[in-house]
Amino acid sequence: MTTNITQPDTDRRTTLASGSWVADGKKPASRLRGTKRRRSIPHLLLGALLVLACAAAFLVVSLNSGNREPVLALARPVAVGQVLTAQDLKQVNVAVDPGVSVVDSSQAASVVGKTMSESLPAGALLTLDAVSGAGVPASGQAIAALSLKAGQFPVEVSPGSHVSVVFVPGQSGAALASPPTPDATTVWPAVVTSVTSPPNQQVTVVSVQLSQAAARQIAAVPAGQLSIVMLPGSGQ
Description:
Blueprint: H1 29-65, E1 68-74, E2 89-95, H2 108-111, E3 141-148, E4 162-167, E5 187-196, E6 204-211, H3 212-219, E7 226-230
Antiparallel strand pairs: 1-2, 3-6, 4-5, 4-7, 5-6
């Protein structure tokens, strides 16, 4: 007679008293829940930080929006050379950085009638540079560009300076030339509109506004035979 003795399954033995293992070899559910809670703590901290960041951003925006100023903007598109009218303007309240050159709404009367020096779309904020009229000659006037070297113009020359353009024939390194016509004046009064120094060049380009006839005469003079003399009232 054969007797079958069944040995206890030691691999699936449970130690419920210790709480370390269950019959199927898995950890107790209580420990799994504890692990999940520990893993969720960083997510909770991240969410709290995001809430604080959003609150700070909202506070900054609220503070900035409180410092709004009434300034002038364009009610419709304007083109360079156009004379500004009251119908071209509207008042808007915006928060403006200190370095932005906007026009206060109280200055509307002072800019109406000015010539636009650039084209702007509707809704754009009006700036003082946009109504300076720079680069737009008045009726009967023209703008001529002079390519000058050091010594041919005062270093104090700047936009708005009142100057005389002087014909100086026979300067060193320049071809000889005569005045544009035998009886033409060799001194032309002008106002400087811009001063630029092209890169990698040893010249300075000075643009001046003067009469159309004078501009044509100056354009006919070879380079190197013109100089600028600064006059009283420059920069006004």
